[in-house]
Structure to design on (444 residues):
C-alpha cells in the first residue's frame, strides 16, 4: 500500500515536470505540444473509492495551469476525464463489473489500451482547446488542433506505458 | 433527513466531481476577464522560482545571440547620438532651460524565464516583480519591438500578457502617415499579427513599417512592431492587414520594461474629460 502511494507521488511530480519543462516547449511542426501529463489518469490504480483520485487529478491539472498560465483549463479537462475513466474503461472492456483489486492496465490487450487511451485523450484535448479558444467561430481550428495534438499524445503515452510499466 | 444523507452518499463522487469542475470553471472565467488580476498565474514564488532555476541553465546557451543583439542595439543608439551631436554643433550658443528637460519614460531590464507562443492565449513570465518597481499595465519591449504588457506581479516575478493573446489590443500606427489602428492576433502564426480599425483613407502598402501609436498610456510612441505583409481591401474597408513582426516571438530573452511616469496624470486628465 505504501509502495503505491510512493509510486503515485513520484509519478505526479515527474509527469508535472515532464509536461511543464519539456513537452510544453517541444513545438512539433511549430505548434504541437503533446499533453502527456494525462497519463496520470491512465495509470492511477482503479479502485472502488474515487475521491482521492478525483482530487489528485484536479491538483495535477491546476498545477499545470499555474505553470502554463492557462487559467483552470487543464484542471477542468483532467477532472472531467478522471470522472469518466471508469465508465469508459468498462465500455472498452465490455464488462459491467471489474475486479478492482486485481485490475491492471497491463493485463488487457494492446488494442484495448490504445482505444481506452485514445478516447480519454481526445475528450481531454477537445475540452482544453475549446476552452482555450472560447469561441464557436474557431471550431475548425479547435478540431484540427485536437486531432493533431491527440496523435502525438496517444503515441507518446502508449510508448511510455509499454516501456515504463512492469508486466505482471 | 435520512434520505438527504442517502442521496449524498449515493452521489458523493458525482457531487465531488461537480464541486471540482465548478472550482476550475470559476478560475477559467476569472482568467478570461481582462480587468481582474488572475489567481492562477506563473508569477508566484513557487512557479517563478522553478522557472528561474531552469532558465539560468538554458540562458547560458543563448549568450552568443544575446550579445549580438546588444551590440546591434549599441550600434543603432550610437548612430542616433551622432546625428544629434551634429545638430547641436551648428548652434553658436545654447540655452539650457531646465524646465524643458523632463523624463517621461523610465526603462529597466528583465529576463524572460518562461515563454509561450503556440497557444491561443500566451503569457510570459519575467524575473522582476513588485520589489523592482514593476506594476500591472507596464509595457514590455526589447531592442527589436514590442512584446506585451504586464498583467500580474508578485514580489519577485511578473506575468506578461504577450501580444500573441486574444486579450491583447495595442494601439499602433503607420510610420509614414499617422493613421491609427489596433494590433490583435488571430492565433494562427506567431510571426504574424493583424491590424484592425484602420481608417479606410489610410494608404497601406505591403512593406510599410508599423510602430506603436502612443495613444495609450503604456508604450512610448514609435517603438517598432513589424512590417505590413499583405492586406485585403474590400467594400471600401481594410478587411485584414497582416503584419510580420520584427521580433521572433519564439526566441526572446532580455527585455526592457517601460514605465510611463506621466501615466497617472494622463489617465486622470482623460477621465475628467469623460466625466463632464
Amino acid at each position: 500500500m505504501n509502495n503505491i502511494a510512493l509510486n503515485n507521488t513520484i509519478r505526479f511530480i515527474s509527469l508535472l515536470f515532464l509536461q511543464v519543462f519539456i513537452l510544453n516547449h517541444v513545438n512539433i511542426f511549430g505548434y504541437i505540444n503533446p499533453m502527456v501529463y494525462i497519463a496520470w489518469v491512465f495509470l492511477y490504480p482503479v479502485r472502488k473509492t474515487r475521491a482521492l483520485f478525483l482530487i489528485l487529478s484536479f491538483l495535477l491539472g491546476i498545477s499545470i495551469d499555474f505553470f502554463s498560465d492557462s487559467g483552470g483549463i487543464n484542471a477542468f479537462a483532467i477532472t472531467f476525464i478522471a470522472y469518466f475513466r471508469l465508465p469508459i474503461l468498462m465500455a472498452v472492456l465490455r464488462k459491467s463489473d471489474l475486479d478492482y483489486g486485481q485490475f491492471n492496465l497491463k493485463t488487457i490487450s494492446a488494442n484495448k489500451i490504445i482505444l481506452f487511451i485514445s478516447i480519454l485523450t481526445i475528450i481531454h484535448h477537445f475540452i482544453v482547446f475549446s476552452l482555450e479558444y472560447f469561441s464557436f467561430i474557431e471550431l475548425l481550428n479547435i478540431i484540427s488542433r485536437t486531432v493533431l495534438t491527440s496523435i502525438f499524445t496517444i503515441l507518446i503515452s502508449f510508448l511510455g506505458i509499454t516501456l515504463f510499466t512492469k508486466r505482471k | 433527513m435520512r434520505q438527504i444523507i442517502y442521496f449524498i452518499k449515493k452521489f458523493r463522487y458525482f457531487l465531488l466531481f461537480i464541486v471540482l469542475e465548478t472550482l476550475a470553471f470559476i478560475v477559467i472565467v476569472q482568467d478570461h476577464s481582462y480587468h481582474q488580476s488572475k489567481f492562477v498565474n506563473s508569477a508566484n514564488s513557487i512557479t517563478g522560482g522553478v522557472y528561474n532555476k531552469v532558465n539560468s541553465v538554458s540562458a547560458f546557451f543563448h549568450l552568443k545571440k544575446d550579445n549580438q543583439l546588444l551590440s546591434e542595439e549599441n550600434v543603432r543608439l550610437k548612430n542616433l547620438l551622432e546625428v544629434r551631436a551634429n545638430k547641436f554643433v551648428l548652434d553658436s550658443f545654447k540655452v539650457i532651460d531646465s524646465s524643458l528637460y523632463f523624463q517621461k519614460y523610465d526603462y529597466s531590464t528583465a529576463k524572460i524565464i518562461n515563454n509561450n507562443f503556440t497557444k491561443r492565449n500566451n503569457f510570459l513570465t519575467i524575473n522582476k516583480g513588485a520589489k523592482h518597481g514593476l506594476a500591472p499595465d507596464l509595457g514590455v519591449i526589447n531592442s527589436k519591438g514590442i512584446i506585451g504588457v504586464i498583467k500580474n506581479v508578485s514580489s519577485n516575478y511578473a506575468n506578461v500578457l504577450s501580444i500573441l493573446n486574444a486579450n491583447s489590443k495595442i494601439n499602433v500606427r503607420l510610420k509614414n502617415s499617422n493613421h491609427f489602428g489596433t494590433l490583435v492576433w488571430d492565433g494562427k502564426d506567431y510571426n504574424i499579427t493583424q491590424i484592425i480599425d484602420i481608417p479606410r483613407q489610410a494608404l497601406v502598402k505591403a512593406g510599410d513599417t508599423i510602430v506603436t501609436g502612443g495613444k495609450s498610456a503604456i508604450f512610448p510612441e514609435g517603438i517598432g512592431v513589424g512590417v505590413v505583409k499583405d492586406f485585403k481591401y474590400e467594400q471600401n474597408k481594410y478587411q485584414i492587414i497582416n503584419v510580420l513582426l520584427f521580433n521572433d516571438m519564439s526566441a526572446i530573452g532580455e527585455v526592457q520594461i517601460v514605465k510611463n511616469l506621466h501615466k497617472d496624470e494622463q489617465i486622470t486628465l482623460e477621465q475628467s474629460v469623460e466625466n463632464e
Chain B touches chain A at residues 12-14, 16-17, 20-21, 23-28, 30-32, 38, 40-42, 44, 46-47, 50-51, 54, 114, 116, 118-123, 125, 159, 166, 187-188, 190, 250 (CB under 8 Å). The CA atoms of residues 62 and 188 of chain B lie 26 Å apart.
